[in-house]
Amino acid sequence: MKYRFRAARSFWKNFAKLPGRQQEAARRKFEIFKTDPFDPRLRAHKINSLSAHYRRTIYAVEIEGDLRAVFFVEADVVFTVDIGSHAIYRV
Length: 91
Fold this sequence. Notes:
The chain is α+β, with helices and mostly antiparallel strands. The protein is built from 3 helices and 5 strands, in the order βααβαβββ.
């Protein structure tokens, strides 16, 4: 499937706060993400607590270590909503 991508302001705000090394790691992973957000190298997984809260399926992909990017899919659009540590999973 061909996806279109959108990112929330919260994503860009938190991305800008990351150290340069983590920003570069995120850029490398997003090259894969833009091809297929569910590529096995990203280890995409459903976040049950956020999915229940927002009443839609919310996923996270692993960037590196504890760094995750959170997104959801609506039709052919992938909305990236946040990036950060596991703390972003808390509602």
